[in-house]
Amino acid sequence: MTSVILVDTIKNSLDSADAIAFPGGIQSSAMAVQVLGNSHVISSNIATTSSSYVTSGLTSPVITPKFANSKILITCDIGMIYGVAAGNGSMSSIFRSVQGGTYTALNVVTYDHFHESSGSDNISPHMHHILDTPTYTLGNTISYQAFIKGQGNGQISIFAGSMVHYTVTEIAQ
Predict the structure, then answer these.
(1) CATH code for the part of the protein at 27-171
(2) What is the residue extent of each domain of the chain?
(3) CB within 8 A of 17, min separation 6: which ones?
(4) Fewer CB within a 10 Å sphere, N or C end of the chain?
(5) Is 131 exposed, middle or buried (0-12, 13-18, 19+ CB in 10 A)?
């Protein structure tokens, strides 16, 4: 048997000022509040020879947190091709935009996700799993995007025929 209790407010019978209201639903620490996902089918290589991060143009679903101070868990899987010459490598990183602002890196490290060639074309998955603590105001939108760059000489790319998958989860604190 399934039971449902519908309430807007719970009040203490001895003190009507002591009330619990549920205008946005119930929130519990470490509770997943919402989960969004999307996938991009790559029809032609998204390539660069840049040694600085460049946009892939592949964005996550836009999430609007329901609670203040939530953390956002981002997973992003990217199929990369890198290196014809030994020493060439591909790197990818996840950047964040709040309320349509500039995308900024979540991790500022030299080698966020990195694979280096041994002397032939290589295909490698880059799998990002990041627990982000963004600064936002309730009502702000947040989106994430994969950025890519190469190391050494040559072109790297997110390869045609692959998919880029995002999952974005709001976790209440």
Answers:
(1) 2.60.120.760
(2) 27-171
(3) none
(4) N
(5) exposed
